Amino acid sequence: MLKILSSNLWPEIETLAANAKTKQVAVAYVSDDLRVKFNAGDTLITDASDERIASGNTSKRILSNVVKKNVEIYSLPNLHSKIFIFDNVLVMGSTNLSSSSRNRLHEAGIVTDDPKLLLSAKKLLDNYKKSAHKIDELFLEKINSIEVTKHSEGTGDARSNEKPSLLDLMRSNSYILDDFVISIYEGEATLTDKVIKDAAKKRSLKLPPKERWDYYEHAYDEKIDKIFDRVFEKSELKVIAIETVSDNKNKIIKIVDVKPDVQVYVNKLKIQRSLVTNFVLDKRPPFKLNKKEWLKELNKILKDKPEIGKTLSDKTAGIFAAKEFAGIFEFI
Predict the structure, then answer these.
(1) Is the pTM for the entire model greater than 0.70?
(2) Sorting pLDDT into bands at 50, 70 and 90, what band is 100?
(3) CA pair distance 279, 238, nearest whole angstrom
(4) Do 150 and 272 touch, CB atoms closer than 8 A?
(5) Which homologous superfamily is 2-159 in?
(6) What is the pLDDT of residues 51-86, one digit of tens each?
(7) Would you list the domain boundaries of the chain?
(8) Following CA atoms 47, 53, 54, 56 in sequence, which dihedral angle do they give, to the nearest 10 degrees?
């Protein structure tokens, strides 16, 4: 396996981290530990120099918490690598363990299980440890006396963090929509969580943690399978999922729900005659999704222009580029 990821990189890291028995990480800055949980026996190498602690790039609170879990942790000044080893999978790219890396920055990286690359990465981490300072209680006592004078992720105009609504983005034909698709589904799944998890385990496919996992079931169709490959694997587009109701002529007559979280593709499974697509939930999209406003606006348009329901129903796999969807509803 060798793949390059960008918008899907963090969901991939989170899924691998949640399923890994051991983690070996060398990353420049650690200011957020919500995405990769370290446990006893894991290894973390970071830059915990006085300068990085004072700037807030690396958090002394997080380091203290990690030390208490009996994680093997080191400080290597001037470290700028971003290397993650989850069991036998290597991730190398641009990501730090920070909220800005996860939620704001455009990151990229490679993911591979190539044995030679894994061995080289492990040797590199061993060399880092030889040059680094082990972080223990005495080290923590020293950095705890350092005053944090600024925080690289906490600066800037607060207004810049205000998110537009999804409808606002559609009306303005925003470039932000280029990363998203609208996926229409009807809640008629026949498979169970257990069946899907068992099938994934049998085929050595990783699923996200239970509380952050969602999936959709389709009757298997080779054309749909290829669409998913193009939309999710090649283009890495994220999903806004809406549930609809159709009449006896298979025309959509109402939108009844919208999933509150944007979803990011993980993998797909063919189970019997069904194609199951698995997603991890991304709870911090660059827009607000006001469910009440969304349903009211779209259902009013559907009622006034019922031909839109036919257009929606005729779409193969029920997947629309977000701007295409906006055009159908005449927002743009």
Answers:
(1) no
(2) confident
(3) 9
(4) no
(5) Endonuclease Chain A (3.30.870.10)
(6) 888 888 888 888 888 888 889 999 999 999 999 999
(7) 2-159, 163-328
(8) 100
